Amino acid sequence: MRLFLCTTVAPAILLLFTLAVDAGVKNIEQTRPRYGQRGTTVDVTISGVTIDNPRAVIFYKPGIRAFDFAKPEQQPSRRGFAHGGYLDSAITCKFEIAADCPPGEYPFRLLTNTQLSHIGTFFVSPFPTISEPSEPNDSPDQANEVTSNITINGTLGHDLRDYYRVAVEAGQQLSIELDSVRIADQHYGDSEYDLAVRLLDAEGHELATNDDNPLHIQDPILSTIIQNSGYVFVVVERSVSQATQSPYALHIGRNRRPLVAFPPGGMVGTKQTFRMLGDPRGEFDVTVGLPDNEGPFEYFGDAPSAVRLRAGRFPNVIEAKSTDSTTAPITEVPSEDGSDGRTRDINTNGVLPIRVALNGIIDRHDDIDTFRLKVRKGEPLHVRVFSAALGSPIDPRLRIRFEEGDVEIDADDASLTDRDVFGTSYRAGGGRAEILDPSVVWTPKHDGAYLLEISDGSGMGGPTGVYRVEIEPLRTVVQTALWSKTFDWTESTRVTGLAVPQGGRHTVNVTFPTGQWQTIGCEFDLVAEGLPDGVRLLAPRLKPGVSFWPVQFEADVDARVGGALITLMAKPVDSTIAVESRSQENIPFLNHSGGDALNYVKVDRYILGVTDPVPFTVDIEQPRASLVRGGELAIPVRVTRRNGFDGPIEYSVRYVDGSVSSQPPTTIPPGETESILRLSAAPNSPLGEHPLAVIGRSLEGEIQRSLGAGDLLASSHIVRFTTAEPYVELASQPESIRRGERKKFVWTVRHKTPFMGEAQVRLLGLPKGVNIVGNATILTRESNKISFDLEATDEALLGQITGLGCEVLVNVDGQEVTQRTGNGSLRIDPPQVDANDRSQDR
């Protein structure tokens, strides 16, 4: 497939993987079975690390209820995965799947008494689900006999293929889907998930086959009309020979199997008739009610997987095949009462920027569809193509040119940021079909008519080559994403998890990625919607342009242990400003070493869990002194131990402004309760007030698990500190001293930030053989000059010494502030020789 490239893993990366012991450990490594039928209750086993004492499974969308948790007496033996991950424990529970539960993927998190796990997934089928009946089944003689309309949870082991025998009738439709990459639930993988499917008649002749396709990428899908009654063989096999086990789900049904719909979208909150394309029986129409919210949605029909569609904000314009170009009307914004927007002909004097959704089909390899638009000079427009992301086989190319002049936009692919994919980083920008769909911000250079052209850069045009182009003025959007920069592009609950202990606090960092939208130009507050009772959000107010910020959750002592779905929404302080707000987590689920993420989970809400109390708390003092430019601030850190907990606690800064440096993670040894956190500011750090929080982490038995499995976390309150101008600036003239000489080294003082009392000044950078004699040098707010008494011995090296500076220690209300300032030079000369010595020498 065009989305994936074979690459060689560099030796440096291999070394990194070898050294990173336990780096890839997650709470949830496997969920079995992968599929269950709607309307049934399924026995489920969840395996991983530190998942004792389960309390709840919280799903990101409704339809499944988990209950009857237990820990089997026989726990799995330790099984290792790539990159240091492993599993060594398991729990069981039951998933009750509602009868009206839509098919598809159901992400979840497991809440234990102390943790909220990494993300896991489970899938729902419209068909009865069974386990692979028997092994071996790697030949026609050993084929498992199964019926149609069934989902099989299977595993392809060291054998190269699995055979299934299915009774069929002449004229019936047989649709086969094989899920492997899409249901993978380990973080690292390679070609072991690249499977293919073949359909054979009773004599072994091939009737149909599929490996890759535009809809499911590496997971096969095929549908055909059976010509003769009898039986057929469905063969699951590897595309690439691998010795590892590959879990899969095989769907064998009599259902219709369209691949795309036309038009591929419609207006939110309306009913739309779609023509389903790609089914072997031919096209057919369905009428679907669109969701009330803008974005992608799915139509399943009677199939186990969906046709992808999009709900937009504007009326559709359909390509007119009978003309050279299709004219797009000027569209007004829908009224607030929800009635449809009105359209006006392009030749009228429109007063609103264009808002429209263009829809068409690239039905030949050389087809070029053209739309005529009327726009205004200098008004930015967001132009987004949706095609490959909806299962279309084409790689769309977008060109926009002035009708009487030059091309202004010529775009092919896009970045993940252009497509609003934020969250945990990816190895590379590929692996997702969205990157084939262009997305641009276009500012027309002229008033008047432009021509927008869509073509296919890959030459894959055909009857299913659908596309949709949404055009609108730039909107102001605030998007939140949990900040995660961890080992090898992996989700880390230590930095993004939302487990809040009863009577305690937890702090996470949130980013505000902009993508191609306008950013908010005012102060705003973050509001958490959906919080459980007894839990509060504490987040400092944000100023315009902030891209990274701490948010803190605090739970009452009697808050109920459990989980909830929440969103973080931006609310401008000025209520007259209109802002859209979104939440997103985007997690690579099956990464490919040295390449792209082959599987991923994207959710539009966060899960927060309330856990049992943590046996320690962490507190930092509200700084009484400012952190001055070029200085260092010492902040006391204290832990309170409870319930006999005496283990080591590692603390680190959860949030600090990027212009401020903090010390590395620091461990408070067993039995101790105090430490010092030191912050330092660069000479050009921005002035102003900043939030600060630290996180304490238990280390007992979990010191090497970088992804957070097994961690007990407790956050300090968010405090505020100020970055200020230096207390003083010291400067000196170049000075010299001879060996054997004593001399004053004078520095002038320029006061910038007032302070009370005395400050001690140390001279830094003196070479060997040059010493300070006498008492310490003291500086007060009245000092204009200070001096150091220097003495040069015979050990002093001759020559110029540069880079001398001063360290100023100021005590502000008992809090120590250290500042470095000055840049002096000192020349070391030979000792003075008197006249008598010179005459004796002669």
What features would you describe in this structure?
There is one protein chain. The chain is an all-beta fold and 842 residues long. Strands 50, 52, 54, 56, 61, 63, 65, 67 and 68 form a nine-stranded mixed sheet that branches. It is globular. 42% of the residues are buried. Residues 1-21 and 332-351 have low confidence and may be disordered.
User: What is the number of strand segments?
Assistant: 68
Structural class: mainly beta
Silhouette: globular
Strand content: over 45%
Ends apart, CA distance between termini: 92 Å
Approximately how much helix is present in the residues?
A: under 10%
Rg from alpha-carbon coordinates: 33 Å
Q: Which stretches are low in confidence, meaning pLDDT under 50 for 5 or more residues running?
A: 1-21, 332-351
Mean of the pLDDT scores?
Answer: 89
Instruction: Quickly count the helices.
Output: 3
Indicate the topology.
Elements: H1 11-19, E1 28-32, E2 35-37, E3 41-48, E4 54-59, E5 64-70, E6 79-80, E7 86-87, E8 89-97, E9 104-112, E10 116-125, E11 129-131, E12 144-146, E13 150-156, E14 161-168, E15 173-179, E16 188-189, E17 195-200, E18 206-210, E19 221-225, E20 230-238, E21 246-253, E22 260-262, E23 265-267, E24 271-277, E25 284-289, E26 295-299, E27 307-312, E28 316-318, E29 326-327, E30 330-331, E31 343-344, E32 356-361, E33 369-375, E34 381-386, E35 396-402, E36 407-411, E37 439-442, E38 448-456, E39 466-473, E40 477-482, H2 493-496, E41 499-501, E42 505-511, E43 524-529, E44 535-538, E45 548-555, E46 562-572, E47 580-592, E48 597-603, E49 606-611, E50 616-620, E51 627-628, E52 631-641, E53 649-655, E54 660-662, E55 666-668, E56 674-681, E57 688-698, E58 713-715, E59 719-724, E60 728-731, E61 735-738, E62 742-751, E63 758-764, E64 770-772, E65 777-780, E66 785-792, E67 799-812, E68 815-829, H3 835-841
